[in-house]
Amino acid sequence: MRRFGLLFLAAFLFSLLLAWMPVSAVLASPAAAQAEEAPPAAEAPPVVEKKEIKTYTLPPERYEKAVAYSRARYRLYFVGFAYGLLVLLVVLGGRVAPRFRDWAEGSSRRRFVQAVVYVPLLLLTLAVLGLPTDIYGHWLSLTYEQSVQGWGSWLWDWSKAQLISLVVGVLLVWILYGVIRRSPRRWWFYFWLAALPIIIFLQFISPYVLEPLFFKFEPLEQTQPALVVEIEKVVGRAGLEIPRQRMFEMKASEKYKAVNAYVTGFGGSKRIVVWDTTLEKMTAPQTLLVFGHEMGHYVLGHLYKGIAFFAAVLLLFLCLGYRGLHAVLGRWGEHWAIRGVDDWASLPVLLLLLSVFGFFFSPVANSFSRYLEHQADTYGLEVTHGIVPESAEAAAGAFQVLGEINLADPNPSTFIKVWLYSHPPLNERIVFAQTYDPWGKGEPTQFVPER
Description:
Structural class: mainly alpha
Order of helices and strands: HHHHHHHHEHHEEEHHHHHHHH
Number of domains: 1
Number of helices: 18
Largest sheet: 4 strands, mixed
Distance between the termini: 47 Å
Number of strands: 4
Helix content: 55-70%
Shape: elongated
C-alpha cells in the first residue's frame, strides 16, 4: 500500500521500517481480522485438544490455500519491483520531473518553497501510478480472507500514508539538495549525518504520532489485567522491569485477521504491542511465549542494533548513489532534460538507484533480520522456562496458530527464504522450539541465566 507513497522513506530511512513492520510477522503482508472484540480477560481461554506439534502442518484444503496465497504474494513482490522501476523510467523518459521542476522554480526563488511544490507533485505522481499493484495486494488479502478492511478504509489509510511521506519527503529533499549544492563531492556523507537524527526522531515519535493514525491502542493492563500479572512473572524471571505503561493491546481486528505482536519506539517511547487477534486466537501460555519473544527484542536491544545496521547500509547506498548518479546523468541526463546532480529533476534517478540497491540487498537485510528473530525465539523459550508449563509445546503451538491463521507458506524454497523472509520459516521455528533444551543437556543458556 505504501510502496510509492513511502518510496523516499523506504530508500533513505531503512531503520524506520522497523517501526512500521511488526517484528513477529512471518513475512510482512497486509492482512486483517474480523471486527470482533477480544474475549474479556476474566474468561478462561478456549479449551483446545492437546496434541504434540513436531512440524508445521495444515489440512489439505488449507495447505493448498496457503501455497496459492504465498505464491501470489511472491509474484507480487517481484512484479511490483519491476513495475516500480518501469514507473520511474516512464517518469524520466516522459520528462515529468523537469516539468515539475520548472513549475516549482517558477513559483518562487526560495528553495524551500520550491521543495514544497516539487516534492508533493513528484511523490503523488509516483503514488498514483503505483496504485495498481497496491490495489492488487489488498485484493489478495481480501480474496484469501486475510482482511476485512473495506476499500474506503483502505483508501483512507493509503491517503494518510501519502500525507506522512509528503511531509517527511519535503523536509528530506530540501535538506538533500541544499547539501548537494554546498558540497557537490561530499553531499552523500553530510546528508547521511543529517538523516540520522531524523531517523531517530521518527522512530521515537512513531508510537505517539504515526501508529495511532492507523490503529487504536489501549493499555494491556486495562484490557487484559490477568494476563499482565502472568507477564510480570515472565519479566521477573529475567530480572528485568518493564513498566505496565509500556505494554499495549492494538485493535488489529478492525482491519486484520492475522495474529501478531511487535516492539516499537525508541528510548522512552519504546513499547511492546500485542494485537487483539493474538489475544483472541491463542491460549494464555502461547500468548506468554509470544510476549517472551517480543521481550527478547526489547531486552536484547534489537531496535538499536537494527538502526545501527541500516544506518550503515544507508551510508553505503548514498555513497553508491553519489557515484551512480553522476554516471547515469552523464549518459542520459541531457535526454531526460536534467541539468545536473543538483537539479530537483534528478531525484527520480536517485530513487531508481536506491530502489535497485535495496532490492539486491534484500537477502543481506533479511538474513540479518532472521538472525535477530532467532535470538528472540531463543530468549522467549529461556525466559518462559519453568513459568509456562510445557513451554516448548506452547511455543510450537503459537507458531502453528500463526501459520494457520496467516496462511504462511508450509514449504518455502531456499531462494524465497533468503530473499524475502525476515523471519525463519515456521517449520524451522517449531523444530527449534521442540529441540532446544540446554536444561536437559546440562548446557548453559544463551541469554537468561538459570535460576
